[in-house]
Amino acid sequence: MTVTQSLTRHLKNPELFVDLASVPDRNVAAATKRFSVFNPSTGELLAELPDMDAGDVSKAIDKARSAQEQWGALTARERSDTLWRWHELILNHSEDFAAILTAEMGKPLAEAKSEIAHAAAYLQWYAEEANRIYGETISAPSNDRRMLVIKQPVGVVGAITPWNFPASMVARKISPALAAGCVVILKPAEQTPLVAGAMFALARMAGFPEGVLNLIYASEGDAVGRELCSNPNVRKISFTGSTEVGRLLMRQCSDQIKKISFELGGNAPFIVFDDADVDAAVEGAIQAKFRNAGQTCVSANRLYVQSNVHDEFAEKFTQRVCALRVGDGFDPNVAIGPLIDDRSLAKIEAHVRDAVIKGGTIRCGGNRIGKSGTFFEPTVITEVASTMRIAQEETFGPLAPIIRFDDADQVVREANDTVYGLAAYFYASNLKRVWRVAEALEYGMVGINTGRMSSEAAPFGGMKQSGIGREGSRHGLEAYLEMKYLCMGGL
Ligand code: NAP
């Protein structure tokens, strides 16, 4: 038994998940070193897992390479059927998956259930898309030749995922890769490897052939990353995480001109214009800012509110924020769980301190809760200036800075004044303004009169330093396909 009672007591079918340490291939995971996974709400030990190293990754790559030909040669229907079985199994055990997620990551159980449903939706979407890989024929410039394009799997994919959405980030990468005919080596985040382990355990039951899905548990992300980027048998790296690590991986991939898909950090503006429905904007801001305790890459990071509606918005929003309850995600009354670790807590405390020194007013919250643990009060700060750290950096926590503005054109320029370009939101009703602002924002995704926009059916991804490529939708499948041009002459 590698999973402790602190976790199994939350599960309906503990026997399925009690030995998550053995999910990586036994021959590969020869590791004797182990690392521990803790519940961030309680500090309880949840599991001890093999701490795999670069040598283990290299063996996994060899296995994946041997499996690539067989998996790529299956019909689209056969690959789709296996993805469907996996989808079905995950849905059948969704309550256990949600409990594992809440235990290792801390998010409220209702949010964990919604994440598992979202993860399953990716499997469903790409089980369907697997059957829709099309080539094309081209009108040739001369009659003695025919020209066409076929699509083929990229090959072995190395995938690295973060801790904030430990199930949906895995599904969003792996399902299109498998649908396209690629095989995968996945390294989930050190803090949240258990949901990924549980997903892989059920993948075995779904019937993926040996070597198609390979799991690497590791506490040293950099050693794993270096091997994945430098091993020539890995054809593509798909990474979700910070821009800082993305930059490093991009450099490591450059020697071999390896294909990359990167989903990186953000600094989302949330703009409320004076023709907006203020109540709807308040609800949207609560969703966009406080989901997952503000630890999402698309979290509203800077709230710009036009002067005419500023005071009404600030008042109503503050009231809603003060009422959000913080605590253990297994408590059904809790809306905000813990932060993932002390480092995250320290960053938010530093942002609050910096804002107060520079003239910000705390309207609610502002402090950590208790002397131990990583709980932080949901916080609203007004009188925020663009020179403050909260206006410039990704806070990644339950802290909402409100910036007052007058000029509608100027606010768009300010919103765009960042190296990031992942998500933006705005509330307005004038149709001309809606189109102008939507087109002017330099972001990969724009939520208009909504605070929530992620969907398996839509392309998710960023401009500028927020990433390269898109995940989800039909575009997410293309990222795992090579285009091959065939020219048939002498006809
Ligand atoms: P992170 O530090 O970049 O870590 C992400 C993953 O990369 C983890 O699995 C981590 O492993 C691994 N890693 C760390 N250093 C590495 C290295 N040198 N080489 C290879 N892998 C390495 O990011 P995070 O703090 O977990 O996640 C938060 C960030 O992710 C935020 O910036 C957020 O905006 C971004 N994010 C973006 C999206 C998106 O779709 N655009 C979605 C979610 C999150 P270890 O855990 O072992 O360190």
TrEMBL record:
NCBIfam families: SSADH. Residues 30-485 form the Aldehyde dehydrogenase domain. Gene3D superfamilies: Aldehyde Dehydrogenase, Chain A, domain 1, Aldehyde Dehydrogenase, Chain A, domain 2. It comes from Phyllobacterium sophorae. GO terms for molecular function: succinate-semialdehyde dehydrogenase (NAD+) activity. It comes from the Bacteria. The gene is gabD. Pfam families: Aldedh. Belongs to the aldehyde dehydrogenase family. PROSITE patterns: ALDEHYDE_DEHYDR_GLU. This is Succinate-semialdehyde dehydrogenase (NADP(+)).
